[in-house]
Design brief:
The structure is a homodimer. Chain A contains 15 helices and 19 strands. By secondary structure, the first copy, chain A, is of the alpha/beta class. The longest helix of chain A has 17 residues, at 23-39. In chain A, 43% of the residues are buried.
Chain lengths: 418, 418
Amino acid sequence: MDRLPGFRDFYPEPLPHSDVWSADARQYIFDKWRAAARRYGFREYDGPPLEPLELFTTKSGEEIVGQLYNFTDKGRREIALRPEMTPTLARMVAAHERNYKKPIKWFAIPQLFRYERQQKGRLREHFQFNADIFGESDVAADAELIALLIDTLRSFGLTSKDFVIRLSSRNAWQSFYNDTLQKTAHKGANEYEFFQIIDKLERTDPSEAEKKLSALGFALADVNAFITAGKPTAELEAILTNLAARGLGDFVKVDYHVIRGLAYYTGVVFEAFDVKGEFRAIAGGGRYDNLVKLISAGKVNLPALGFGFGDVVLLELLKARDLLPKFDAKLDVFVLIEDENLRAPSLNLVHNLREAGHTVDYSLTPARPDKQFKRAQELNASFTVKLENASTVRVKNLVTRAEKTGSPDEAPRLLTDC
Amino acid sequence: MDRLPGFRDFYPEPLPHSDVWSADARQYIFDKWRAAARRYGFREYDGPPLEPLELFTTKSGEEIVGQLYNFTDKGRREIALRPEMTPTLARMVAAHERNYKKPIKWFAIPQLFRYERQQKGRLREHFQFNADIFGESDVAADAELIALLIDTLRSFGLTSKDFVIRLSSRNAWQSFYNDTLQKTAHKGANEYEFFQIIDKLERTDPSEAEKKLSALGFALADVNAFITAGKPTAELEAILTNLAARGLGDFVKVDYHVIRGLAYYTGVVFEAFDVKGEFRAIAGGGRYDNLVKLISAGKVNLPALGFGFGDVVLLELLKARDLLPKFDAKLDVFVLIEDENLRAPSLNLVHNLREAGHTVDYSLTPARPDKQFKRAQELNASFTVKLENASTVRVKNLVTRAEKTGSPDEAPRLLTDC
């Protein structure tokens, strides 16, 4: 019996097979995400992995609808496994925002699900670091959020040679859209259709793009000229200045290719890319000032912004740049039991060392001394500890080969001294 | 729009409403679970939250079948949200056990799902600490696993006055079952039907239990006599001795009321209960020596045992015993920006303090000094740090009221000295 296509098994390292994933690397990534968010004063939240279908279908634009992992439950409810965290977060914030002082700075590490048409090796789930700020309309919040994204990437050892944040603006594109239509007096398009074409421009054949754009009253040459000029809006200038003040100026550039696919973005948008252009976007986000109002049916109105940062592209990038540590077994102490008459006091020793906070293992059943020592080495133990008799313990540092003896009660202290 | 019934929203503390859960308390519990497992030399794994339906329906007994959160996906696969971790783990171990030295000691913290008939306030998901050992048939492994469960509970501040492990044995019940049937020459029952009655005995009306038991050829009086005698098998004796050697004898007692509901248990079984008997079982587990073989269609045969330990009853118990800490906002440093001309160098200061590992916040936009200080207090900041001018920083310890000044570069050091 095999797992479902598009899902991952996470094993302890060393990995037994190329088809499975590392639970240790996953935890390493989660720890870095959590630490970065906390340094920035973000607090953790989480919501249900299942939500009513309409939370997603009515709010997130056509892009997402066909890709949902949705079904009818036994109570005849239309429900979906969450494809993104933002609608859940907007729902949660709308329900209880009055109890939290603004700005609200929150993060989560949800597992997200999509049911995309089967492509070989394409995953149907991933984990995503989400960080969001609510209640601040000033772009100082956008700068703070982007700084968090940059510093999170930096905490993995990535530098400005490895990644860049491409900064853009829905407002800039909205102005371009309005100005152009005013000039041409063309009608009938909606801006989101136009935004979708821009979003896919880098992956679209020019003649195809030209055709699609002209149908909406735009010329590809004008669009490309706007992108190439890349003139920052006042908002983007303020963000660049803010990030430069932190010493993070090298990590960000204005790039109007970026516009973000989701319908709900309203202001500054951004994506993190590897500089060599070998991978898909590492992370992306932006402002969604209208979403809380939409989700709460008008009851709550709060400016908001956030990003999502997945584990899969990050892992590919860290591997490619040789920045992912190895996570083989690691133990503080292996307790050797060479005399079975000493098993009971040895179990007591094991227990006391664990109580002192050490990671400790031992042979559950009688085994030859050389086999026990081999096991200690397999588990990368730093020390062996052995009862020589009921009143004497011998501690051996397996790196320095130093040894110490003392009473069993002294074992935890001997470990720090040896 | 509300969340689905039976699912939880997790908010940062202080909690805004009695109907929501604490993300901070959840993380506190996960951290304790993870730390205890690691001290015992267990390594982390995880599997998909969705699995093929048959992984659960064909393996886990009737008890579970009607309660699954199952559905048909867009690819017409019959799938289910995992109701327990053991079948996934058995699948994963069977697939790659050759690459891991025995005994395999693994743990996970999955979210699990059940679709039980709607009862007010009844949850349809919870998180569960799972720890399992593969490849060791000796009861020394059972003792190691139970010791982990005891020490995990102890790490929350719970003592032998708060909880006890009720130890039992499928083998003991199997012998009772065989011996009784041999005497009465009654036929037609299967043992699992009998085990199910025992499992529910404490919650069943005696006359009802009598009726059900006699239909299978058993007398309630005999069953009760067997339970009351509580004569430990040799296996259980060995476990009691092993735990006593660790100093954990007070935390365990033989109690044949326990038999565990799931079909796949084969040997020693156990459950953790609060001593006062106010709550449902805190945790439970046992041996399932045949499951890996069953899941792998006979390809892999490994003795196995494990426990599951959920977050919901634990939270109730910790609250009732006043052992759950408060997790209000907590910050190392709030940077005050009282002169907007110093915003750029102040952002640089914020950045450098975060680089030094501190949790740091500040006012994103211009605000009156008293409002900034109030915010620092709301966030429970330990220190305020303020640029007096481009070359002088003032650090204030909000607990001791001590102050220090120095150059901005010295700020991280001033924090440790102040």
